[in-house]
Write a structure and sequence with these properties.
Layout (H helix, E strand, L loop, with lengths): L6 H20 L4 H8 L9 H20 L3 H24 L5 H23 L5 H15 L1 H13 L7 H20 L3 H72 L7
Length: about 260
């Protein structure tokens, strides 16, 4: 007999797609810290506070997936937690400085990592509603940085802050989680991922708008530069022609003076 799939089976497949996209979104987040490891960037260029918030958010979603026995959510956010821990470890090892601000920052990192490990191994969350509300709160904290990016893009009218491929992957991933939450009637999943999808979609739209404007300005600037260059070349050619004509007349006069023509009578 032909095997038939019901809605729950398709929802499980959708969750695996969402998990794959989530892991693909988190993988590039380690890149700035690898650059620190290779000495390509200074620590000031790396999003330290954001990686802490990302770690806390991923940890809560991992715990929520563990509570729901969701293999997809456990796997994707376990990978996210590992990536964040590697990033934090690289920062702590290679970029610790002795000033007061970095000392406080290092303290925050150590406390947050220790607290996360403590939560996983000791706290038994048996209330899915409480943990779901905590996940929504951590997601709102996680969305602060993308919202700040949107504000900067609108102010500067420049889309260079938006990493379009990463954001596109994130948009597809959160929309898969949103549909998964709707089908599963889990609104603790559906609501924050819908909000994340709207934020990601806003970034994609802004990228398209300001990239087109930038390309239009660049093309216009190039055309203006080329036009000015052509006009300058024409003026230079005209000036060279006049100069050559004057030099030719001067040469003729000098030649006549040096070799006067004898008139035969």
């Amino acid at each position: 007999m032909e095997e038939r799939y019901d809605l729950d089976d398709y929802n499980e497949m959708l969750a695996w797609v969402a998990a794959g996209l989530t892991m693909a979104f988190y993988l590039p987040k380690i890149a700035p810290f690898i650059n620190v490891l290779q000495g390509l960037k200074d620590s000031e260029d790396t999003p330290k506070f954001y990686i802490i918030i990302t770690y806390i958010n991923a940890l809560f979603w991992f715990l929520y997936g563990d509570l729901l026995f969701s293999d997809q959510m456990r796997l994707s956010y376990m990978v996210a937690c590992i990536i964040c821990l590697i990033s934090i470890g690289i920062y702590l090892i290679f970029e610790i400085k002795k000033d007061f601000v970095d000392m406080i920052l290092n303290l925050i990192i150590i406390v947050s990592v220790s607290w996360g490990i403590y939560c996983y191994f000791t706290i038994d969350f048996d209330d899915d509603k409480l943990l779901g509300k905590i996940c929504i709160a951590s997601s709102l904290m996680f969305y602060c940085f993308p919202i700040y990016t949107i504000i900067r893009v609108i102010r500067e009218k420049n889309a260079k802050l938006i990493h379009i491929y990463n954001i596109s992957i994130y948009f597809l991933g959160v929309m898969c989680w949103f549909v998964y939450g709707i089908i599963d009637k889990d609104y603790f999943i559906a609501f924050p991922y819908l909000l994340g999808g709207l934020i990601a979609l806003t970034q994609i739209i802004l990228y398209r708008i300001y990239t087109r404007k930038y390309m239009g300005l660049r093309i216009g600037k190039n055309l203006m530069t080329n036009t000015i260059g052509i006009e300058n070349n024409e003026k230079n050619e005209e000036n060279n022609s006049i100069e050559n004509k004057i030099n030719f007349e001067v040469d003729i006069k000098n030649l006549i003076k040096e070799r006067p023509v004898k008139i035969i009578s």
